Structure formats: structure tokens, C-alpha cells
Amino acid sequence: MYEQKIKKIMEDISNKKLSIDEAVKKLKFIPFEDLGFAKIDHHRALRKGFPEIIFCQNKTTGQVISIIKKLVLNNSDVIATRATEEMFKEIKKHVRNAQYNKISKTIIIKKNKVAKKGKILVLSAGTSDIPVAEEAAVVAEAMGNKVEKLYDVGVAGIHRLLSNKEKLSDANVLIVVAGMDGVLPSVVSGLIEKPVIAVPTSIGYGASFKGIAPLLTMLNSCSPGVVVVNIDNGFGAGYFASMINK
Predict the structure, then answer these.
(1) What is the dihedral angle through the alpha carbons of 12, 13, 18, 20, rounded to the nearest 10 degrees?
(2) Which of the residues 39, 63, 88, 176 has the least number of beta carbons within 10 Å of its own beta carbon?
(3) Distance (Å, rounded) from C-alpha 231 to C-alpha 198?
(4) Distance of alpha carbon 126 from alpha carbon 94, whole angstroms
(5) 180, 125 in Cβ contact below 8 A?
(6) Is 158 helix (H, G, I), strand (E, B) or coil?
């Protein structure tokens, strides 16, 4: 069905029944490839500028491998988040250039080279927040951005942040990851004129309520220019930062 629709569009262009612009519009909304357990959106790159990303949590290793193989056959770059080492070891048997980041639990497969654009700076308040920060950094880099990292610069030792003012100013957009009290994004935003994407993490003692406390702090930031993604959502922050950086 997928190939028949493509052929029909090509024939209509050849027979001058369809303009090139009209064909592009149609191609943007040709649906998907149905694997039974998943419907792969091959045309997301055409609509959104980047291929579908695989969220591996609660998927079987076999399901993840099947999806990745189909995306690779379509010459797509691949980002898989919340992936286990077991998944990566099996995927590596099928796709040799697959890379795994143990900290962020992400799998990256690059099929296309792109020139990297302006800088995204990823900050973590504490060392415990680094896995979420790494997910944001890996995703942003895979999407063709220059990425710099600045970890363990939380408000408990504010001088660690203030000694890096040049790095803050040089970035086009900043991703600030924090658990506990979640104050760091507001502090960073108060120092610079750049957009700040705040990421609350589930790190903290009981009253942090698994990330609810930092989430509310970030949503109530008194410094303008802060937007907030979901708890532990490094992927969402990296993706959105890339959209801003375009």
C-alpha cells in the first residue's frame, strides 16, 4: 500500500496531473508502516524535520530491534531513549554503527551527516541529575547542534555557576536540569537574556515528591524566559532546544 501510493504520486507528476508542491503536501501525510505492534511514522522527518524517536521503556528487545531495522532501511537517523544495555547488545548485532550512552540510556544511529549549528548549554544542579541532563545533551547533539555541558553547579555552591558566566552568555539556549528544590533554572534565567528550558528531576528526599516539588518551583519561576518540560524528560528538553536553535 505504501509503495503504491508513492508510485501513484510519481505517475501523477509525470502525467502533469499533480504539481511538485502538491506532491510534497501529499507525501507529508502518507501514513505509516504497520508492524502489528507498532505503526512506524516514516514521514515524520518530512513533517517535523527529524525522524520518529523510539521510547524503549516497556517495549521488548525484539520490538525495539524490529522498529530500528525498519527506520535504518528507510535511511533514517535513529534515537532510542530509555534503552537497556541488553537492547543495545542485540541491536549492535544488526546495526554496527549503533552507539550507546550508559548514563543517559540512549541509542544513537547516525545515517546522515549534518553541519552542527549554534551552541546549546546543558547544566545540571547536582551529579545525581546528570543522567537526565545527558539524555538532553545526547538528543540535542544527535539533532545537529553544538552541545556543551556544565554539571554540578547547583545553588548550594552558587560560586560554581557564577565562575562560568561566559559559557552561559555564549549559548543560544540553555537546558537546566535540577531536582531537590529546583531553583537553578530561575537563577540562570536571572543572569542572562537567553531562553531557558527547565527540567525537573525525580531526585530528592521525601518532600520533593519524586519531582513534583522542583516542577512546581520551575513553573512558578519569577524570572521570565523559563519554560518547563515534564519530570525527568531530558529528551523533550533536548528536542525543544534544537527547535529553538534552528
Answers:
(1) 150
(2) 39
(3) 10
(4) 37
(5) yes
(6) coil
